[in-house]
Design a protein that fits this description.
By secondary structure, this protein is of the alpha+beta class. About 35% of the residues lie in helices and about 15% in strands. The protein contains six helices and five strands. It has a five-stranded mixed beta sheet. The radius of gyration is 19 Å and the shape is globular. The N and C termini lie far apart (about 45 Å).
Length: about 190
């Protein structure tokens, strides 16, 4: 059996890394979920220590796994996916070694319910479920009805100069959300203005 090599990703591997994520998504949900451009945007975010916090797993020179651990306030979010479940344990071990400065109790990963191999790898690594969420989809039968705005409200396109007000409104709207960590303006701008 071929061994799994885990290492930091290289910028020139963005297409291969996106394909690992997309193959994982197609296997679970029947659809791709990212593009190389979106992944490149993830890697260039202010909170990402690239390439140290982005790992890949390869078998015989082919990428078969992906992991990133991204700090967000007091918490770090862990994303592990792969096309070969043999990649999961080595990726989680490498993340644990690299994340020794993180508070282990505040590292949170996610695993789709239908990805039993990943759930079992998280369990072997000492992670325990603490929260569940749902992926919801709906087929729309035609165009939606036009919205009816309450009196005194109007809608217009975003304009230059609205940046700080939009950021503040978003921060306020999520203020009571579970696990919220305030997002610095620069980080918000990366994700919303890029």
């Amino acid at each position: 059996m071929s061994s799994v090599l885990v290492r930091s990703v290289r910028e020139d591997e963005v297409e291969a890394a996106a394909e690992v994520l997309n193959e994982h998504s197609r296997r679970l949900y029947g659809t791709a979920d990212t593009t190389p451009a979106e992944l490149r945007e993830d890697w260039s975010a202010p909170e990402v220590d690239f390439p140290d916090n982005v790992l890949v797993a390869e078998v015989e020179g082919r990428l078969v796994g992906y992991a990133d651990v991204i700090p967000h306030g007091e918490t770090a979010w862990l994303d592990v996916r792969g096309t070969d479940s043999r990649a999961y344990d080595p990726l989680l071990e490498a993340i644990a070694r690299r994340a020794d400065t993180l508070d282990r109790d505040n590292v949170r990963g996610w695993a789709p319910e239908i990805d039993r191999d990943l759930q079992e790898a998280y369990d072997r690594a000492g992670f325990r479920p603490f929260r569940h969420s749902f992926r919801m989809e709906i087929e729309l039968g035609g165009d939606p009805s036009p919205p009816e705005w309450p009196d005194g409200f109007s809608v217009r396109p975003f304009r230059e100069g609205d940046e700080r007000a939009a950021w503040e409104a978003q921060q306020d709207s999520f203020a009571d959300t579970w696990g919220l960590a305030p997002v610095p303006f620069e980080t918000w701008a990366h994700w919303n203005m890029g």
